Amino acid sequence: MSNMAVTLHSTRFGRLEVPADAVIEFPNGLIGLGGTRYALLARSEDSAFIWLHSLDDPELAVPVTNPWRFFGEFEVELSDEEAERIGITDAEQTSVYVTVRAAEALEDFHANLRAPILIAHGKGYQVINQAGEAPMRAPLFAGLAKEAAA
Amino acid sequence: MLIITRRPGEKIMLGDDVVVEVIEVSGSNVRIGIAAPKSVPVYREEIWTAVKEENAAAAATPSDVSLPSPDPLPQ
Fold first, then answer.
1. What's the whole-model pTM score?
2. Which residues of A touch B56 (CB under 8 A)?
């Protein structure tokens, strides 16, 4: 049966049943982290932060967020070779997430706008964003960081 | 590390599927062409290293940081 749920024994969150249609295949894994199957885990659909959890490694999970929640001007631009390689051409059908380095203090939260994660039709790819100013470490709460520095 | 001397226009095969070609040498710059199957992503090493470090740092986020605890999201 191909539509069986996957049981995840997460070291972070304990035992979770992930429905088959929530499994995302990452043919190349996450850059430097590997993994081939992940799922997005969130308390509710409007959670600002979501965990992209490996289904292969019970210890591997990365917090991600919708970049436009924090960066209104955010853009993803792919080289033609990259777009062809991953076969994602329809922006409307593509979900975009960015990884988050979280910390105790909100002003130390950063997102990687340079290497967003694109998900479409059950497949996910972490890509290199060619958009000019996309930084590897963008403060999520820039206003707070400024206040803290003042 | 294997070190091979090549001239512009000459190529190197990595296995049967990946071709690396020296396109042009100009001063201290070398232009390189790479033809690889779609299953093989190609990165500039310094970007790959930096993204790898960011991913590892994100994956090291403590579970109890004030992020929501999860339920599977429908696709």
1. 0.87
2. 32-33
